[in-house]
Amino acid sequence: MEIEKFKHKISIKVRFSDLDAMGHVNNATYLSYLEEARIAYYNDVMKKKSDSLDFNAVVARIEIDYVSQIRLGDKVEIYNRTSKIGNKSSEVEHLIVVADKNEKIVAAKAVTKLVSFDYKKNQSVPVSDKARKIIEKFEGGNK
Question: Where would I find the beta strands (DSSP E) of 1-143?
Fold first, then answer.
């Protein structure tokens, strides 16, 4: 994953409650960071209100490679992009980065697989053409 391929990013403030006994961000907290980043990504790309929770998808899988530690006071940025859209699912790649002065240090790399879902019917559904077109337009040739 190359940072230059990502068009979307958010900043995260590390809270004291994010830390474990060793003084670095607990591995489980990374999932919360990814969730916040994913919601922001889709709200921004789909032009939804920032407080919208209207997502017709469920998380099917999250894969995380932990590369370096995050500590209290670190400036954290999360880069997000849709790297693949299938018939009923899509994959979102994430880079969690510590921005240290002029250097960006990768703390984690993650991939989230989402399955399009109809909550009324309680079943998976195809990715909507509208969503596919909007995401592909946003991402452009960054695949």
Answer: 8-13, 57-66, 75-85, 89-100, 103-118, 123-124
Question: Per-residue confidence of the chain (143 residues) as pLDDT tens digits?
Answer: 889 999 999 999 999 999 999 999 999 999 999 999 999 999 999 988 766 556 689 999 999 999 999 999 999 999 999 999 999 999 999 999 999 888 999 999 999 999 999 989 999 999 999 999 999 999 985 55
Domain that holds residue 16: 3-139
The total of other beta-carbon atoms located within 10 Å of residue 89's CB is 19
C-alpha span between 40 and 48 (Å, rounded): 9
Instruction: Assign residue 16 the CATH number of its domain.
Output: 3.10.129.10
pTM above 0.85, yes or no: yes
At 18, give phi and psi (nearest 5°). Answer: -80, -15
Cα(135)–Cα(20) distance, rounded to whole angstroms? 36
Length of the chain: 143
**Number of separate domains in the chain:** 1
